[in-house]
């Protein structure tokens, strides 16, 4: 199970830290037992070995800080068990002294070890992604590529409610029920819940790890409430006896039962009905969210006409399929990394960067190409052997997730690697705004991304109320309507202009001169020539004069004789 | 009169020997039509054939120029009868020494007598003979093509008189050969009439003109027909499509394509595919999923699919898709006992004036079909038969594979496949499922009923034994309690009927049964003790309580006797009875609680 998760998603780090945490907390709570020891030791060893078989993970589990907690707990558990073993064999006094000394020494040793190894570079420091979990502002400053992904933004309350609905409220209740009857397993659930809530708050996409535990705990909450309020007949002696045998604190329970008997059946039914209503609303909401937000693939867009008929915008697949069938087998495509996997999967073509974002410098280079003017970008593209450039442009249909809207992130990522060539401030208007109309900064109007997005868009009039070249996404008339491309040509644009593909032209055989060739006056030359002809045939300026004759030879011979 | 005329004709023919072939056949009058309005060259010639020889002619020869022959997709000859009924002729390829080209011998239905005349219609279709020139055009340019052919009818027989009419796709003609001062009207060029053309005469005709019709070519199509005897025939066609016109040079501008009507005029946006009228569940997909740009129209006699590739096809661009549908088998599958015949189209319509470079037909017959025999309307290359496995197949379904190159619309004809199939084999797959489930359930039954453990677990064994004993104890105790209740009833009845005999007999049975039950329970208690269970004590307690209960029952019985005998007053009896009942209730509840604890 764990191995599959390791091979699937980097989020396995969460698990490999959560389980040691659970064991550690059990240790602190004096709930540690042989069962836990056996389970954790086997899990850690087998999981470690198997996870190292995944090529991308490799030796990370023993070399990076993220995995050190698991290793530390493993060592701790071994020590603890050893001490327990000793304790069985030693007298009380020996035991106490030894215990305190040993624990302190072990902890210290472990800490020193880890610090030493990190300092000497054996253990890699925390990765940037990890820092961004603790300090939400960290990514924005240091690793823009992480911050650029919308999934990595902190979660808003709205999205909490959108995803979890009523469970937001019932989940703490379930947590409380869990804490009240704590057991070994429930410790895990509680730890999972608490840590997942934190991470979900930091990053939108970690909502994924939160949802299972929310479901479980809310179910606990609902079930315990219904257990109390839905039982119609008042609990008889049987029940009391059962509860007495199940719960240790029989007296307390009996008291509650008495309280409950005090509730009228009206209140009971009212509460039950209210809760059922909430659940009903929850179901409706979930169905709606699933159908609207999570079902429609983001590759195929759909719009609805006034009469309710559906209009499918299949531009992505159109362009990808064109690439698949009508470009060479080995063409390389430059696009922003978001579309990397899509191009690889649907177009079956090589991309420079893709959603596996570990090669930050490469992404920055692509970002730099997009942010530079055409001739600089052309040099970069020649360097990277690019055949086609693919961009996404939503200005015609008003698609907000297009490359112009992502452009500032490209600039920021490029700036991170090439601070001298690309500066974010250059692409903002003097007022510090990012805009594409006449008030846009000259650097933006001249950069490759802008030119490719708006190539021939200036002529296009979408409807009669707006001027030609009106961008529907940004609601602005574009600033540079006469876009000319020199090194690129439009190879394909999808039906609604959503995807535009440009072909990178080969360099011309002989570069054309943009100015007139220089004309040098021939009159002077002629004069000179005449002079020369008068003296000798075939005149070469500054030619070394070689004196012919025998004398030199003779001299040479003489010297040779000497 | 007739014979004299014929003789004189023959004489003339003999004298003008030079202009008559060895067969003595002469093309009296030839009307040729060269249809270049699509991307195909369809050349039809209506020939009035005359026999100027001395013997009856049984066949005649059709000839094709060496330049065009490799591109021949279809050739057909028919005799025009007087009743307006065309009779198609059987063609056989042959060679003529000393002459280049391709030759076919057409068998006449009835031999042609010397001097007789016959009207023959020869239809030929050539693919890929219209060469785009220039070979690369930009998006704004129009597509120009060159056709190179022959001004005359290429024939082994001399031709007395002939005309050639060329139909073009548009008015714009760059150039055309001007043999015999042809006349050109809107979209047609008329050559001739040419008189007395010798056999095998060729004169290069070259026409360079504008042709923006879709130059679509199916570079390969795989048609898979899967027959199921459960009533369905599934057809799937995997199609590789290519625009074989002039290549697109330079950029493709979507703006121009959308805003200017004549931009990319030679490109293909969509086309119509006609499916059989009974086609259902039509799908149109490619590797990356459903292609959303298509429309389906169900007509009376067909189903029309408007196929729009994901992107418009310009010169040199390709696309790939598959289209599939289901047909009810009763329309295509005939049977007589165990003999079946499948009659289906070998190749179906994809678009008008289609050209198929390579066709592969795969016919998947049901598992167990034997004696397979395929009747094709025209020669087709059969490959090695394959086996196909789908769900629940054991020895595989036979697959007939056939391939053919260069097909056009005229090849849409029926193929008939005969085979034998034993109907019992249809039960094979359901029985297979039934058998599998049977085995599954049977193993579960065996597993649950039998004990497969190799070691005995003494603790579990004891626990089970104790459980069974306690179960027995429970039933016995309950039975004993039932006895008391029964006794109560007996007492009540006695109170009303005052029948002492009944009471005594009831008491006796109670005593007897109680004794046996108690002894049974004691025995069980002993066994429990032997097993070392602490439940034995509880059972002992139950026994003790039961003894008290029994006493109470006896006492209530005696009380009742005394009441009936009049020894006690009613009030006192009621009091004591209540008292006894309370005690009994208490005892019963204690026993119950003990039983629950067991």
Automatic annotation (TrEMBL), chain A:
Region feature Disordered, mapped onto this chain: 510-537
Cofactor: Mn(2+); Mg(2+)
Domain Oligosaccharyl transferase STT3 N-terminal: 5-217
Pfam families, alphabetized: STT3, STT3-PglB_core
First-listed, main subcellular location of the protein, grouped into a coarse class: endoplasmic reticulum
GO molecular function: dolichyl-diphosphooligosaccharide-protein glycotransferase activity; metal ion binding
Catalysed reactions listed for this entry: a di-trans,poly-cis-dolichyl diphosphooligosaccharide + L-asparaginyl-[protein] = N(4)-(oligosaccharide-(1->4)-N-acetyl-beta-D-glucosaminyl-(1->4)-N-acetyl-beta-D-glucosaminyl)-L-asparaginyl-[protein] + a di-trans,poly-cis-dolichyl diphosphate + H(+)
STT3/PglB/AglB core domain ranges (all copies): 333-389
Documented EC number(s): 2.4.99.18
UniProt feature, compositional bias: Basic residues: 524-537
GO cellular component, as recorded: oligosaccharyltransferase complex
GO biological process: post-translational protein modification; protein N-linked glycosylation via asparagine
Membrane-spanning segments: 6-29, 36-56, 68-86, 98-124, 157-179, 186-204
Classification via InterPro entries: Oligo_trans_STT3, STT3-PglB_core, STT3_N
Assembly and binders: Component of the oligosaccharyltransferase (OST) complex. There are 2 OST complexes, OST-A and OST-B, which contain STT3A or STT3B as catalytic subunit, respectively. OST-A and OST-B contain common core subunits RPN1, RPN2, OST48, OST4, DAD1 and TMEM258, and OST-B contains either MAGT1 or TUSC3 as specific accessory subunit.
Protein known as: Dolichyl-diphosphooligosaccharide--protein glycosyltransferase subunit STT3B
Native species: Culter alburnus
Automatic annotation (TrEMBL), chain B:
Subcellular compartments: Endoplasmic reticulum membrane
Topology class, membrane: Single-pass type I membrane protein
Single Gene Ontology BP annotation: protein N-linked glycosylation via asparagine
GO CC terms in record: oligosaccharyltransferase complex
A Pfam cross-reference name: Ribophorin_I
Subunit structure: Component of the oligosaccharyltransferase (OST) complex. OST exists in two different complex forms which contain common core subunits RPN1, RPN2, OST48, OST4, DAD1 and TMEM258, either STT3A or STT3B as catalytic subunits, and form-specific accessory subunits. STT3A complex assembly occurs through the formation of 3 subcomplexes. Subcomplex 1 contains RPN1 and TMEM258, subcomplex 2 contains the STT3A-specific subunits STT3A, DC2/OSTC, and KCP2 as well as the core subunit OST4, and subcomplex 3 contains RPN2, DAD1, and OST48.
The protein's name: Dolichyl-diphosphooligosaccharide--protein glycosyltransferase subunit 1
Protein source organism: Culter alburnus (Topmouth culter)
């Amino acid at each position: 199970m764990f191995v599959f998760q390791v091979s699937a998603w980097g989020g396995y780090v969460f698990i490999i830290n959560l389980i040691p945490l659970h064991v550690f907390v059990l240790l602190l709570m004096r709930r540690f037992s042989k069962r836990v020891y056996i389970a954790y030791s086997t899990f850690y060893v087998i999981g470690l070995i198997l996870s190292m078989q995944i090529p991308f993970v490799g030796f990370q589990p023993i070399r990076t800080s993220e995995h050190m907690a698991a290793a530390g707990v493993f060592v701790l558990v071994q020590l603890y068990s050893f001490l327990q073993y000793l304790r069985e064999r030693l007298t009380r006094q020996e035991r106490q002294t030894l215990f305190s000394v040993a624990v302190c020494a072990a902890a210290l040793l472990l800490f020193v070890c880890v610090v030493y190894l990190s300092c000497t570079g054996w253990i890699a420091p925390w990765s940037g992604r990890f820092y961004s979990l603790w300090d939400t502002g960290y990514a924005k400053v240091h690793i823009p590529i992480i911050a650029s992904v919308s999934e990595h933004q902190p979660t808003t309350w709205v999205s909490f409610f959108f995803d979890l609905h009523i469970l937001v409220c019932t989940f703490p209740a379930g947590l409380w029920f869990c804490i009240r009857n704590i057991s070994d397993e429930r410790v895990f659930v509680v730890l999972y819940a608490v840590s997942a809530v934190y991470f979900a708050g930091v990053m939108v996409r970690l909502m994924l790890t939160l949802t299972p535990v929310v479901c479980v705990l809310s179910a606990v909450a609902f079930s315990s409430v219904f257990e109390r309020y839905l039982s119609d007949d008042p609990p008889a002696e049987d029940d009391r006896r059962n509860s007495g045998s199940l719960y240790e604190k029989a007296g307390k329970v009996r008291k509650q039962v008495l309280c409950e008997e005090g509730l009228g059946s009206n209140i009971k039914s009212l509460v039950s009905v209210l809760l059922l209503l909430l659940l009903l609303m929850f179901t409706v909401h979930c169905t709606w969210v699933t159908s609207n937000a999570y079902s429609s693939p983001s590759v195929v867009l759909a719009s609805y006409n006034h009469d309710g008929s559906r209009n499918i915008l299949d531009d992505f697949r159109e362009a990808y399929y064109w690439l698949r069938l009508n470009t060479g087998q080995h063409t390389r495509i430059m696009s922003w990394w978001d579309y990397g996997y899509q191009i690889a999967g649907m177009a079956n073509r090589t991309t420079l960067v893709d959603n596996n974002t570990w090669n930050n410098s490469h992404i920055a280079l692509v970002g730099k190409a997009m942010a530079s003017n055409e001739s600089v970008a052309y040099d970069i593209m020649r360097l990277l052997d690019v055949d086609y450039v693919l961009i996404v442009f939503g200005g015609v249909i008003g698609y907000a997730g297009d490359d112009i809207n992502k452009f500032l992130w490209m600039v920021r990522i490029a700036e991170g690697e090439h601070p001298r060539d690309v500066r974010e401030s250059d692409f903002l208007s003097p007022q510090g705004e990012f805009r594409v109309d006449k008030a846009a900064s000259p650097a933006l109007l001249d950069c490759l991304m802008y030119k490719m997005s708006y190539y021939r868009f200036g002529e296009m009039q979408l409807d009669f109320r707006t001027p030609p070249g009106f961008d529907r996404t940004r609601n602005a008339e574009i600033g540079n309507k006469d876009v000319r491309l020199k090194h690129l040509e439009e190879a394909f644009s999808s039906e609604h202009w959503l995807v535009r593909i440009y072909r990178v032209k080969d360099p011309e055989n002989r570069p054309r001169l943009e100015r007139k060739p220089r004309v040098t006056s021939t009159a002077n030359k002629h004069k000179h020539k005449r002079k020369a002809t008068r003296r000798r045939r075939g005149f070469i300026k500054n030619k070394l004069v070689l004196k012919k004759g025998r004398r030199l030879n003779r001299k040479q011979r003489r010297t040779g004789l000497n | 009169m007739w014979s004299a005329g014929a003789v004189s004709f023959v004489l003339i023919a003999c004298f003008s020997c030079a202009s008559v072939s060895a067969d003595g056949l002469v093309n009296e009058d030839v009307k040729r039509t060269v249809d270049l309005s699509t991307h195909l060259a369809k050349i039809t010639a209506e020939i009035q054939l005359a026999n100027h020889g001395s013997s009856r002619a049984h066949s005649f020869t059709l000839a094709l120029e060496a330049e065009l022959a490799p591109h021949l997709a279809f050739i057909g000859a028919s005799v025009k009868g007087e009743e307006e009924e065309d009779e198609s002729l059987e063609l056989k390829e042959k060679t003529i020494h000393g002459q280049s080209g391709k030759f076919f011998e057409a068998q006449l239905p009835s031999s042609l007598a010397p001097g007789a005349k016959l009207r023959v219609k020869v239809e030929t279709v050539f693919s890929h003979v219209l060469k785009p020139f220039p070979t690369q055009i930009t998006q704004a340019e129009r597509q120009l093509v060159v056709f190179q052919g022959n001004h005359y009818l290429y024939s082994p027989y001399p031709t007395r008189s002939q005309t050639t009419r060329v139909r073009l796709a548009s008015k714009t003609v760059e150039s055309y050969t001007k043999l015999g001062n042809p006349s050109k009207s809107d979209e047609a060029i008329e050559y001739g009439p040419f008189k007395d053309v010798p056999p095998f005469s060729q004169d290069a005709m070259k026409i360079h003109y504008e042709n923006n019709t879709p130059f679509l070519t199916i570079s390969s199509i795989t048609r898979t027909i899967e027959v199921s005897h459960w009533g369905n025939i599934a057809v799937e066609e995997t199609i590789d499509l290519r625009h074989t016109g002039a290549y697109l040079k330079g950029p493709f501008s979507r703006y121009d394509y959308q805003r200017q009507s004549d931009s990319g005029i030679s490109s293909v946006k969509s086309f119509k595919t006609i499916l059989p009228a009974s086609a259902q569940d039509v799908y149109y997909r490619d590797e990356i999923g459903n292609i959303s740009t298509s429309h389906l129209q169900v007509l009376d006699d067909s189903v029309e699919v408007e196929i729009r590739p994901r992107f418009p096809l310009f010169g040199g661009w390709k696309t790939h898709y598959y289209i599939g549908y289901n047909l009810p088998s009763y329309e295509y599958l005939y049977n007589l006992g165990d003999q079946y015949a499948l009659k289906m189209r070998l190749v179906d319509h994809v678009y008008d004036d289609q050209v198929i470079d390579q066709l592969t037909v795969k016919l998947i017959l049901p598992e167990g079909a034997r004696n397979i025999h395929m009747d094709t309307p025209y020669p087709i290359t059969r490959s090695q038969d394959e086996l196909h496995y789908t769900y629940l197949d054991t020895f595989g379904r036979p697959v007939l594979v056939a391939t053919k190159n260069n097909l056009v619309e005229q090849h849409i004809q029926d193929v008939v496949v005969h085979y034998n199939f034993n109907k019992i084999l249809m039960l094979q797959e359901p029985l297979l499922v039934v058998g599998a489930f049977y085995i599954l359930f049977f193993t579960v039954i065996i597993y649950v009923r039998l004990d497969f453990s190799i070691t005995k677990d003494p603790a579990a064994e004891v626990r089970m034994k104790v459980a069974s004993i306690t179960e027995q104890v429970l039933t016995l105790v309950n039975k004993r309690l039932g006895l008391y209740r029964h006794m109560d009833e007996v007492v009540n009845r006695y109170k009303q009927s005052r029948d002492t005999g009944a009471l005594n007999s009831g008491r006796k049975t109670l005593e007897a049964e109680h004794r046996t039950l108690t002894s049974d329970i004691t025995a069980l208690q002993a066994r429990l003790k032997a097993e070392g269970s602490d439940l034995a004590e509880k059972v002992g307690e139950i026994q003790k309580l039961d003894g008290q209960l029994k006493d109470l029952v006896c006492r209530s019985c005696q009380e009742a006797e005394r009441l009936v005998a009049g020894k006690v007053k009613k009030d006192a009896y009621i009091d004591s009875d209540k008292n006894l009942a309370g005690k009994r209730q208490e005892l019963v509840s204690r026993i119950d609680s003990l039983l629950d604890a067991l």
